[in-house]
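This section describes the prediction task in plain terms. A model, or a person checking by hand, is given the sequence of a single protein chain and must write out its three-dimensional structure as a string of tokens. No templates, partner chains or ligands are provided. The sample shown here is typical of the held-out split.
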Amino acid sequence: MSDATTDMKVTAASDVEVDRDALDRSIKEFAGPNGDYYVNAFHTIHDNTGFVPRTFNLAAALLGPLWASSRALWGMFWTFLILEIIAWVQIGRGLWGNLGADFIARADQQRERMQERLDQAAAAADDETRQRFEQLAENMQRAIDQNLERAEAAQAEGLGILLIGLVLLVGFKLVQGVYANIAYEKQYSRWRIDPTGTESGRSTTNLLLGVVLTALIAPLIVYKFTVSNSLALLNEFPEREVSTLVLGDGGGTLFGAVASWMEARIDAAATAGGDVFDGIVLGVRTVLDGLTLALNGSPWPVVMLVIAVTAYRAAGPRVAIFTVAAMAYTALLGYWALAMETVALVGAAVILCVLIGIPLGIWFGKSTRAYKMAEPVLDLMQTLPAFVYLIPIIAFFGTGNPPGILATIIFGMPPVIRLTALGMRGVPESIKEAAVAFGASKWQLLKDVEIPLALPSIMAGVNQTILMCLSMVVIISLIGGGGLGQEILEALQFAAKGPGLLGGFAILFLAMVMDRIVQGAFKRADQK
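The expected answer:
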């Protein structure tokens, strides 16, 4: 029994030694040059469970960010490059920086004004005027002396700033030496998981790139922050010189040329497609007029009752009570007509977003190629500030509520498209194959399988679209849109704090009502 136990221990020790040898070979393969050093360093890191590190990389401490670039540790490269530049700026300020330059410049300006006062005193016609100017000159002389004293005091602080810079530089170097092996060991762990996606070894190309980046960045920043009168080229882009180079003398600025060209093209497109744009506006206006007639044309008790019953049926009694309270708030404060106009604007935008967005989302969910082509456009629609695309909206469609709805559609449509496509792509292939095996046609597969399974994601997209459309209410008032947004805009223009807050609360309550109704309807449908 004792011999068997001994044999098992020997075998286990042998297996551990084999695993360690394999690990050492892996580390050497990853590290390349100085592989033995990194074998010992990584084992030390693995064996050390305490807080204090037990390794120090002298090469990383001396070379700093350049070592990090040679080992493809770009996060470490940028971090310590910035930190070392901060230290070098302090060193430069202490060595050759004119620390009192601002005070000296201020003293020179005061000296010029003092000379003007002395000249005025010399030219004065009476003693009283001469004494007044002389007194002003004496006051300025005292201010000049104070600024010169401050300049001398600031210049005397140069040694302290130099020492601070040296301490920072040494401290950053020590931190790099301590942290380098830890960071490199983490990269080794990523390399073992994904050898093709993680760089390994010491790369001469990366080292040269680090040298170039350091040479281009560090000297310019140190020069800019340590020299009092640095080159004007570093402070301001030479826009006029570039415009002259591109357009020639007398050609104006590049901005003016490009802006004029774009304006001419937009005007030409608006004239050429006037009938198409008018047709789009007519279609949007038709939907908006129908909703406005239903909400503002019908008796208010009927509208309030219908909305309350809809809230009760969709989301339950609590949401219905909150809905009635929100509508009572808008009615009691005189916002009923404006609130219904806002609901009509949002409703028209949401209806058009859903009618256009869900079919597009279904198409993109089924066609990866089409989605990849549309994704940059969706990104642009979501990231471009609303104030920017209001300009072409005005140019092509004019002002008022219909153009405002078109701007709202641009802003609010991407969520329903993206989430519909996401829901369609999330339908399991096994379920679709089973439906096809039972004889389902493409239309039946879409109508009875894919859309019902993707419905949670689709409804989430509709909910997001409603809220995003409502957030555009204030913005579209800038181009003539009505509703509560116009009330908020007027409050902003006249700094009317009370009316602005009351109108803002009305918009908030509308958003909460719409969100609760849609979410409640979705939850009830999901529970069924």
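For orientation: The first helix runs from residue 2 to 31.
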